[in-house]
Predict the structure.
Amino acid sequence: MNLKNDNFKKIIEILSLIFTFEIIISFILSTYNPPYQPLLIKLDYISIMFFTFEFVYNFYYSEDKIKFFKDVYNIIDAIVVIAFILYSLQIFYSKAFLGLRIINLLRILVLLRVIKLRRLEENSALMNFLTLLTICFISSCLIWIVESGVNPKINNFFDAFYFTTISITTVGYGDITPKTDMGKLIIIFSVLIFISGLLTSLQKALKGD
């Protein structure tokens, strides 16, 4: 059986999309402290095992190993794999799961894979929406990790997503504000990334690119 055939690649792509959304849904549900939290962690573990296989598979069949790591998407995957290995070693040596916050940090690394969705060749309006949604989503996850437990107004993912989206789009109602320095830094960098994206788009439009 030739593992490089097109059908096998399509299967991998479909599974990658499924497992990526599993991580996203699992993260959102976990912010509501469900009684089935251990099950979500186990599902995440299976997803990350697949991502590790996918990364090794793509690297093994890559014709140019150096060029392989020049692709930002492959770098993201490498970070995920390294985090997964460290996560696995921690479980092996301690024979216990990591703290929930550290597990969620690992989920954040996996969530960076949603950037791959931007490879879809669609119209510019949809690409802009996906880009903004990606920034808001990942920033919201980070905000929830650093602000939950210390910010009485951020109790779940929806609270974090509402606050992050309002902040990044510079609406700023002021009903929710970050309580930690790390939370403030996350919002600062998120807003700067958003604004720099707008400036880049404007420059391209003026240049006629």
